[in-house]
């Protein structure tokens, strides 16, 4: 359409590429000492190059690396660079453990209402395990068949923290918490349609539970629930 | 307060008062033949005089009268006019039954999650009874103590329609419906605070239930749930 | 970019694949005895492999199988495995009926406001028929031409339950319910644009109907409406 | 509690009182020539003194005065000052007509769904009449008894503009517009409870009507609907 | 992938295809006599085959056909079947006019705030012209340069109805209506980002205008605004 | 209107009064063994008589009683009946401790952003203390003066669980959690105006915190936060 | 109901009263040096005693005191204690100026759309003046009469910052900003009804303005707008 | 594709193409004199041809051109036409500066909370620089590591206006504003997931900041923040 339309005619400027990594990120190396775990990379909205540069920076001083919301494409590129990386595809997470954190405290239970909630539940499992916790899975125990929950009650009571993952009407945490004297962290998921509003229905149910003492994290935030559970579990000997 | 402040100086015009009742209402006398029950008066937003005028009109052709959302003040005035009226103060309803409708069909169960849900549950009870149904109450059986529901399961299974009234997280209908092969009509209530948003949390939970076949009515609409239950129950011999 | 970028370098872990089906699902085999119909598979958010594994498990003990929200791709794979499967493409449903449930009770009417509402209406039809009900369709009878509804009034009155499917302003259930003494289950659809907000306008209209006794299900939930209608219809001899 | 707590110790400053009326209002005297009717006073949020001062200013150059959302208390004070004022208490309006505008154009119909919608309908009636239009009222013709609308169809078709006032599910405008070839202006009202959300349900229904050509005004805005209808009607000879 | 994976093994059922057109649509042939214009096809959510079948049915009795929200793909197929069809690609509309409606009444002005609002404005223009109205366009006159509106004031005042199309903050109708004594129909568009919420910001601004007498249609509903304007304009001689 | 308007003419029926306490409540006596603390009475929406009846029932088997959201009027009546009751008026709570629970575990910190957040913070303090925890208060340390938080950092790090109470923009939990390796439970309050939407702004901020591991409870739910903190703290020796 | 019901039987505990002021507030004395003005008291949600205690603390080190959202009752009590206090009743503000800040920089214009917006506009005026700015008022210049804005354009252009206060559709800032090269700070007010949603309509309009460079504060936040304007104005010599 | 399917049969009409540029745009050439900078092109929703035509028109009278929200595809086409154009790909902006505006006033700081916020921050940087301002970047200083902000406090205090860009909980502006006596303009970004609601969580936090004097722009509106900052900065000598 334009003879001689050489690309040169367009001067493209991109701070991300033309500058040093530190132009876009200040890795908080002090975080491991303050919070007990190094900075975790939230991959959404970052280019593979950015994720890899930040990961390199973190691993220059830490033995652990956790990256969440990793696409398959990112995972492929990441694993080429970091040979010890593991890609948990269900959980959409990347993990590098040069020296695993020894297991401490009690056991964290991850309970999921339905099969569609598994990506979020697995994000919680991978996070909790990488942070040095023992984890047990209890999947597909939604309230439409209440006997499934009753049958695992004793096992849950033996855990120190319970993460409950549920979409749709988000009723499962209320039932579970009503049976136990352990802290329950509820994770609403975006599973559902129509008036589930991408997880809002479940979130509201969890915030308004008639069972006392449930705390809640953001929709689909399996990572955050496991991080909180780990902070609790570490203090339990 | 104002010397010579004669009211005459202000010409007040009010269609409600200066005209005949028919200026503001066209009573649908045909409704009883079409729908099996005469027009029900929704009192909110109507003056006592209006409610009484409409009630007179309805009773000129029907043996039953039901009025919902009646304030105590309205009830007092109403009962002075209609000697056979009963005021169900919990339910905020007024009933006139010149000739009660004979009981038909099966039994309607009214299940309520907590004590605060009772006004709505009682609205359902009074409506269902006035429309000629047998009713059983099951109150304060919320999911924070799941054994309470399990213990009434057999009794519920013997009913033909189940109305479940719940506020807060609205989880009770999911659990009840999962146990039975009877139609469950869920009534969200405005019980709760903060993110219950006046009953929206409960409503969304009910609309998104993982237990199949729950249908839902408006927040605090005990009347509507009972009306629907009655339409179902009448067909069951 | 990376010499020898062999895939091996990336250790991928996936609970869905590496474990047994029971890692992600606990089929509720008791459901058929409790609720009168086996577990129904909601396909959204499940992989074809998961759907097929769960279907196998259900069919190991039941004669019926119903799966909703099936994509064409899933349907193709499903039908290769289950030879007796039928794919209702309008309804986005998969059905396996080894021994059809005999027809019982009255007839369920499925009324739809417009042509665009048909996928949801057909989901209701297929569900109701598979659950052993007689069904009649009344399509494209929206309120912009009110005579269309008036002309089917007598036929509707002969049915035992009426499912009304409508998007946009969702006015049809109010008009239909005002004409009959049968239970009306309203299904809002996501048909519309702008302030229809994906079906919320229709949902709110149905929840706030001035015609008494309408009950409502989630947006686009033809399946749920038919499930509820079937629970009602079974009790009517 | 404080010896000598004389009021003097508190210096109170109030721009509303200490300055001239023009400190708080610039009456748009040119409006009558531009828009065909003088500025209308929206009383909500204004003190009686402010309303009266603005009214005086308007009447210094116009023969008509219309004030909406007047409380009974304001009306009392207003009528003491303006002897020719009429207070339409249903409509919450104050009118001063020194020389009524002659009737022009066709007739405006004001149709209301239920008795509770009357304050809004009357606001429309009073506005339209004051602006020089012939008006006909059709009240309590909601869609739960559709025959009521059918019976007034011919009368409506003879009007030039139809204002339809409805709360709850707001279905009436769709039915009315579907029957006529006249412009329909829909007014949602805040009548209802729960998910009517103070009139939002009705508003959304009206904006999403499947009947073409309905236009909509703000919730409870009977005044605005009549103003628009009057601008239309004036052009019709 | 599956030996013998013959398609036959999958029985596909599709009501849309296997039945007659009348299985999915009841064309309202009476509409032209009631409303002055035949049924208009809203193409979204309908297959090309459905649109064409409905169009044939309408044209079997009418001389005009209007179809909105037509994709380019649909337009191509449609134009192959109906040789006289015109495709207004900006407006996303298809028109067949066997015998154009003669121009009547005054002129309809279509005013648009910005260039991005043109698809909606053109939908209004095409609709109004097809329905037999004279139309004038006034584009790109948003309030950030208020002199642009002032300069067209006299021309607008000579029109009988003003359609104002605006996205973002939707302020243009308030300014236009404040200058004229003609009816203003406001059309919010989904132009904007972030808190424009797909046109809600503009819609709310229009519903809350401080200029009296503006009426509003659904977001992006240029068709509806023009339909309403045409019902008004037809009555003006 | 009615000579001799004797009250008798009105038959009032009230299930709350005419039946036994068990008509409206089923106290869950098993809860103390399951959850480690007896049922807590949420007073909102219950009559004083109901609260007192339920309290009697609970105290018939437990040594502790906690009642939240108690109005001053209820407190007065309650304290007349239960001589050992204490009324925490800031916290709107009633406490009866026949035999205080011995202090166990670590210390719970209650941090509040501003003076207006105190009622919620005090609800957390009273709950935590009654449930057998040591508590420390840190009030008025909002982020507009960040040095206030920095100065208490060491003290917070010595606690085992941190409850952070904040209204308005709800930023305090993010800052606090970023400094510590202890679990942080965030409580949004309804302090604010306009777009604080009764606490929604603060709630959303807390759910979306960039500091990992924060969990959240309902708006103004100081009780729930303390209950959760107590379940955590009990496990820490 | 209880013989000898002495008040003593109820032990009331109240942290607000029983402890020192510092139990509920940590006055940020450093703020004046950091931000150029001492801490401002937001009175909503604080008791008169609390406000007075905090005011004393602030005045122990500063010459200025500003308190917003003061009720008349609070003002009366406040003025008894602080003899130099002035109560701006329109603005709902309390001011103590021991030594007024000298006027600096340019002039701040406060523009208000309608008479009902004055309380918010006056809050801005009082704040700006107390913080040492010259202020000019331009009231009742809403867009329904656009000539009113045009007539003050030159005066506005001579000011250094423009605060524009508007409710309803919030269109005024767009028009004003389009005329000037000065920073415009928009303040939405809660003036309006129905879909104004307490100021949200105006807020959204302001955030989505087609006029570049408008910044916005919370609904009814005249104080915040003036604070920002003052930070700007101080830098202008 | 279709033998004989000649395109001729479809008459396509497109106002955008068939008419002159002025059919869709009226460039506001007076804007540079009124507002200090020529019209800026918002590219979203405009075709490349439209953008280029408008750009030509602007450059016929101005030396600067700024276009926002440019896709890479648009940039490519644009740069072929305008040889001096620069494409800032991070910022999604196109700039033509025939004669750069000389730097005036103080320095504008652009502070960003996280790496994902950079596209918005860069939009602010490019806008501010093109409008003749000195700019400093401070990136990745979110509140989860509060020391990062503390370390740049002195540098920020030396700037004249601070733009703070943040997604998720949007807490950064509160902390920054609490430390300085400079105007802070907050830009919420759509970074986040679940209840971040595309930037609403951050927006609300910023509108409800407890730090006085923050003003806010639309979500992701880096351009608007910089435009406002520039209007401020120009006045500071």
Q: How would you name the oligomeric state of the polypeptide chains in this document?
A: homooctamer
Structural class of chain A: alpha/beta
SSE topology string of chain A: EHHEHEHEEEHEHHEHEHEH
Which two chains have the most extensive interface, and how many residues on each?
A: B-C, 37 and 37 residues
**What shape does the CA trace of chain A take?**
globular
State the end-to-end distance of chain A.
72 Å
Give helix % range of chain A. Answer: 25-40%
β-strand percent of chain A reads 15-25%
Low-confidence stretches of chain A: 1-8
- Report on the biggest sheet of chain A: 5 strands, parallel
> What's the pLDDT, averaged over the residues of chain A?
90
**Beta strand count of chain A:** 10
The helix count of chain A comes to 10
Strand order across the largest sheet of chain A? 7-6-8-9-10
Topology:
Eight copies of one chain form a homooctamer.
Chain A: E1 11-13, H1 15-18, H2 31-35, E2 41-42, H3 48-59, E3 64-68, H4 72-81, E4 86-88, E5 93-97, E6 107-112, H5 118-130, E7 134-138, H6 147-150, H7 153-157, E8 161-166, H8 172-177, E9 184-188, H9 200-207, E10 214-216, H10 222-233
Parallel strand pairs in A: 2-3, 6-7, 6-8, 8-9, 9-10
Antiparallel strand pairs in A: 3-5, 4-5
């Amino acid at each position: 359409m334009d003879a001689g339309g050489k690309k040169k005619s367009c001067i493209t400027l991109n701070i991300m590429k033309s500058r040093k990594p530190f132009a876009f990120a200040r890795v908080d190396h002090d975080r491991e000492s303050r919070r007990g775990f190094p900075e975790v990379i939230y991959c959404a909205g970052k280019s593979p190059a950015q994720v890899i540069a930040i990961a390199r920076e973190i691993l220059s001083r830490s033995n652990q690396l956790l990256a969440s919301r990793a696409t398959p494409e990112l995972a492929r590129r990441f694993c080429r660079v970091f040979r010890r990386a593991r890609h948990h595809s269900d959980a959409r997470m990347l993990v590098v453990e040069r020296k695993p954190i020894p297991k401490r405290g009690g056991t964290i239970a991850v309970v999921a209402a339905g099969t569609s909630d598994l990506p979020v539940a697995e994000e919680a499992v991978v996070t909790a395990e990488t942070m040095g916790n023992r984890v047990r899975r209890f999947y597909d125990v939604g309230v439409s068949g209440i006997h499934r929950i009753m049958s695992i009650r004793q096992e849950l009571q033996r855990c120190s923290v319970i993460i409950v993952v549920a979409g749709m009407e988000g009723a499962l945490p209320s039932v579970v918490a009503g049976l136990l004297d352990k802290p329950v962290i509820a994770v609403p998921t975006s599973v559902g349609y129509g008036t589930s509003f991408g997880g809002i229905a479940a979130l509201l149910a969890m915030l308004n539970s008639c069972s006392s003492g449930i705390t809640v994290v953001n929709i689909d935030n399996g990572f955050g629930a496991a991080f909180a559970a780990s902070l609790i579990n570490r203090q339990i000997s």
